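Run: sequence + adenosine-5'-triphosphate -> complex structure.
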Amino acid sequence: MGFIQFQKVVKEYDTGGRKFRAIDRVSFEIKKGEFAVILGPSGAGKSTILNLLGGMDQATEGAIYIDGRDITKYSEDELTVYRREEVGFVFQFYNLIPTLTALENVALVKALKKGALDPQTTLSLVGLDGHVH
Ligand SMILES: Nc1ncnc2c1ncn2[C@@H]1O[C@H](COP(=O)(O)OP(=O)(O)OP(=O)(O)O)[C@@H](O)[C@H]1O
Ligand SMILES: [Mg+2]
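>> structure
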């Protein structure tokens, strides 16, 4: 069994009272340590799949197993912990807080998560030393 397993996952968006099926019974698995890429034309459902995988949106049908646990059964609180402790996500449009400096954006994680890396060290690891604005 894959570390990540999508089983017949459906996502329907509500568009002004009408349902739009963005993905229709998508199934795949990714093994632990495997490097995977999701490819497809604009509108194919890549972001929809990643939002479900990252615990940021709820599937309409189907199961999503991560390390043997079905995250579609998680409560909001469990999803919050899942997002904070288990998922790394780089957003297409960054989702930084524009009124905070680079250092403050990184430091925010330390306020939320025990054992987070030191913000200053983290910035220097990615070559952003001294970028406090
Ligand atoms: N919040 C939403 N409400 C209604 N329809 C949506 C919503 N989000 C996505 N869709 C629709 O679902 C389908 C899949 O969208 P999605 O954003 O997952 O595609 P994508 O493969 O990531 O595209 P792109 O390459 O442009 O990023 C598209 O038809 C899109 O218009
Ligand atoms: Mg997308």
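>> summary
The chain has two domains: 4-86, 96-133. The two ends are 46 Å apart (CA to CA).
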